[in-house]
Design goal:
The chain is mainly α. It folds into two domains: 1-57, no CATH class; 65-259 and 266-511, MFS general substrate transporter like domains (Growth Hormone, Chain: A, Up-down Bundle), CATH 1.20.1250.20. Helix content is 69%, strand content 2%. It contains 20 helices and two strands. The protein has helices at residues 70-92, 98-105, 109-113, 117-137, 139-159, 163-177, 179-191, 194-224, 229-250, 270-278, 280-284, 292-301, 306-334, 343-349, 351-378, 392-411, 416-444, 449-478, 480-493, 495-511, and strands at residues 13-16, 21-24. The chain has a two-stranded antiparallel ribbon with strand order 1-2. Strand 1 and strand 2 (21-24) form a beta hairpin. Helix 16 packs antiparallel against helix 17 (416-444). The two termini are 33 Å apart. The relative contact order is 0.14. Residues 1-43 are annotated as: Disordered. It is a multi-pass membrane protein. Keywords: Membrane, Transmembrane, Transmembrane helix.
């Protein structure tokens, strides 16, 4: 007898073949059957038009985030996005200012460029350490303190009087600025239903993957207006001030204890708002939630699941490290001869990765849902999470071609248009593959969204931390064509991790199930 693949989530969700939607299982059995075409008569909550059963089923509590109005959900979602934009934005903001800083620090430009490597690396630990706090005390206080502390560090970088002090502030920016990338999947899972999540993941991933280009674009334009690097960092602090203000005004807690009886009246008022923002409310209401130690054990326990490790470390690390490498070193390729770009021209070149990322946003907005719906229709109403990974392949091919175009253009000193196209193609690939993998991870770890997301972020940044140290040296030694050609070959090779996950993922999910869920989602 064939082994039965576990349902997509730990809440016993299963696809109803007759209804054409996912339905919720009760007592381990499908709620509907092929003879039960009237899903609503089964007592399940559906969308307003009755065409789609809501997964997961919301409670009867109007304060359940799943029951919030469309406006409320998207307003709270909006408070997350500036922090996601700024996560990498804060690091790459200074990547076009190395030439301004080098004389003042009495250092070479490549040595000054190392000031961002610590910030890139600390994004990983920053995201991992945020996870237990997010699961124990809530999403809102972690988001608030993340943005407030990064604002303080940005002000510190502005006022730093030595390279060591400046680098320390930059490193802390990476550490404190990382949580929005971890919180994102959890907030999406908290507020949105299964049929809504992929598009929200696309927006969330777009926001933190366009940040590395939008930041230097603005910073370069400011530098081109002959603003010194200190005042440039003062503008960055202003952006973080805006993020903090948005969270204070419109943020709300999305963590909801689904198995807890909510009989107490909901607290309101300014005092309660402050309590939520600072974490006092989360500390007060944390009874029944997993302990910090339990979440930490589960966090590292996820690494034992090959269907997490292979798509993240086995693929995300290798496709994103070259993207981070380009954005961290692009000024050293186009400011010197033969291109002789000005700071304004360098800033305008950042339109290329932004356009590539924007195209990937439009592409992913419909393509991932198309893959999901097509699989369901062609497989008798059944669905396999591994189908999500089909979305990796088109973007993967484009990314390989982009790295080759980028390297050949630099090697033969061709038009800057080749640099722009190659860079844009590479960035299209980064977002396209990240969305598909994130959607898969949320499907197979819905109750551990923050934990799984933290590993995606950690493996994405570990490669970026390393590449800053050797990218320019590699190009100098071997030439751009060989360097970026080798990077393309590495990306091409590691597709084996995606293929292995697609072939073995269902069996792995049986053999290595996710850690037992706690009382909260």
């Amino acid at each position: 007898m064939a082994e039965k693949v576990p349902a997509i989530t730990a809440t016993h969700e299963e696809y109803d073949t007759q209804a054409g939607v996912y339905t919720v299982r009760q007592d381990g059995q499908p709620h509907g059957s092929e003879d039960d075409s009237n899903v609503s008569s089964a007592g399940l909550k559906t969308t307003k038009n009755g065409s789609t059963v809501l997964i997961p089923q919301p409670s009867d509590d109007p304060h359940d985030p799943l029951n919030w109005s469309w406006m409320k959900k998207h307003t709270v979602f909006l408070t997350l996005l500036p922090g996601c934009f700024l996560t990498d934005w804060v690091i790459t903001w200074g990547s076009v200012l190395f030439e301004q800083q080098a004389p003042g620090w009495h250092m070479t430009v490549p040595d000054v460029a190392n000031s961002i490597s610590g910030a890139i690396f600390m994004q990983g630990p920053g995201g991992l350490l945020a996870v237990p706090l997010v699961q124990r005390y809530g999403r809102l206080p972690v988001l608030f303190w993340s943005q407030l502390l990064t604002l303080v560090c940005s002000i510190g970088a502005y006022g730093a009087q030595s390279y060591a002090g400046f680098t320390a502030c930059r490193t802390l920016q990476g550490f404190f600025g990382a949580p929005p990338q971890v919180i994102g999947l959890s907030m999406i899972h908290d507020m949105f239903f299964f049929h809504e999540r992929t598009r929200k993941i696309n927006i969330w991933a777009f926001s933190f993957l366009i940040g590395p280009y939008l930041g230097p674009f603005i910073s370069g334009l400011v530098a081109g207006a002959h603003v010194d690097w200190r005042n440039n960092f003062g503008i960055l602090a202003g952006f973080y001030g805006f993020s903090v203000l948005l969270i204070i005004l419109f943020g709300d807690e999305t963590l909801y204890d689904r198995e807890k009886v909510h009989e107490e009246p909901r607290r309101t008022g300014i005092a309660e708002k402050i309590s939520k923002l600072t974490g006092i409310s989360g500390f007060r209401d944390c009874a029944g939630r997993p302990s910090l130690w339990q979440v930490t054990k589960d966090l590292f326990g996820l690494l034992l699941r090959p269907y997490l490790l292979l798509p993240t470390f086995g693929f995300v690390t290798w496709i994103t490290m070259w993207t981070i490498g380009i954005v961290s070193t692009i000024s050293q390729f186009v400011l010197p001869p033969p291109y002789h770009f000005t700071h304004t021209q360098l800033s305008l070149l950042f339109f290329a990765p932004m356009i590539g990322t924007l195209c990937a946003e439009f592409w992913g907005h419909w393509f991932n849902d198309f893959l999901c719906n097509r699989y369901i229709k062609t497989h008798g109403g059944k669905y396999s999470p591994e189908n999500r990974l089909m979305g990796v392949y088109p973007a993967w091919i484009i990314g390989i071609a982009g790295l080759i175009v980028f390297g050949e253009t630099l090697q033969h000193q061709l038009s800057w248009v080749g640099i722009a196209f190659g860079w844009g193609m590479n960035c299209f690939s980064t977002l396209g593959t990240t969305v598909a993998i994130s959607a898969y991870i949320l499907d197979v770890f819905p109750q551990h969204a923050a934990l799984a997301s933290a590993w995606i972020n950690a493996f994405r940044t570990v490669g970026g931390f390393c590449v800053v140290y050797f990218q320019v040296k590699w190009v100098t030694l071997s030439g751009p064509a060989v360097t970026f050609g080798c990077q393309a070959a590495i990306v091409a090779f590691f597709i084996v991790s995606i293929i292995a996950t697609q072939l073995m993922g269902a069996k792995w999910r049986i053999r290595f199930p996710a850690p037992a869920t706690s009382r909260t989602t």
